[in-house]
Amino acid sequence: MSLLTIDSIAKSFHGIHALKDVSMHVDESEILGIIGANGAGKTTLFNCITGAFAPDSGRVHLDGKDVTGAKTHRLAKSGLVRTFQLMRPFGTMTLFENITVAVQSRGVRSESRAREKAMQLIVRTGLEDWAEKISASLPTAVQKRLELTRALALSPRVLLLDEVLAGLVPTERGPVLDLIEELRREEGVTFIFIEHIMAAVRRLSDRLIMMDQGSVLAQGAVEEVMADPRVIQAYLGKEYDDAT
Ligand SMILES: Nc1ncnc2c1ncn2[C@@H]1O[C@H](COP(=O)(O)OP(=O)(O)OP(=O)(O)O)[C@@H](O)[C@H]1O
Ligand SMILES: [Mg+2]
Prior knowledge:
By secondary structure, the chain is of the alpha/beta class. It has helices at residues 42-49, 72-77, 95-105, 111-124, 140-152, 170-187, 198-204, 222-227, 229-236, and strands at 4-13, 16-26, 31-35, 57-62, 65-66, 80-82, 158-162, 190-194, 207-212, 215-220. The chain is built from nine helices and ten strands.
């Protein structure tokens, strides 16, 4: 049985079919990549999976349980956590306070225990030097890692990453990819990641899905999907920043 299964999800906005009939699955400890042009429906899919809004039709199962339309915080308690394409930490708090709040939201009641756990996470993601800085003032690369650390604070089993590398220069990307691989290796975290940077997609993905205009156009082994003529035509022919 797959850890997360999506069956025939559809979602429209004012008559525009953002998702038409999307089905996919991810297995325990797998890293699944999602690619597709701007507007293909990738973020909408994450929104439908993680409770930002309910799909018009279709089902989402986590660990065999129907979680369609469940609220974000309940899904997070079950281990399904996401990051955002546009980050939204509490900007007036320090990085340390942001992570502490996330740890507390996971049910760690003791203030001192929450602070201790937050600091461990911050060390793990290499953000010690930034811990006391106000979040809104942080450089993009640090905010991206804050977003990832915040997600980790929720002890995810499945982590959905929406363009975590966007806005990072090539030298900043490697450490983020290393961290993702480490989390899978050491803690068995399962990932679904949306990404435009093909070198990262190649490096991380066990399997790849290509979306186009609200549908899954191709899925399978990475090199297979990238060699699919429809994929080349729809997506890879366009210029993307590919230096990692
Ligand atoms: N909340 C919303 N209200 C109205 N339309 C929306 C909403 N969210 C998404 N859409 C529309 O749904 C379609 C898919 O958008 P989505 O953001 O899912 O694409 P994407 O694949 O994530 O693109 P990108 O690569 O640019 O992030 C687009 O036409 C978009 O304008
Ligand atoms: Mg998007």
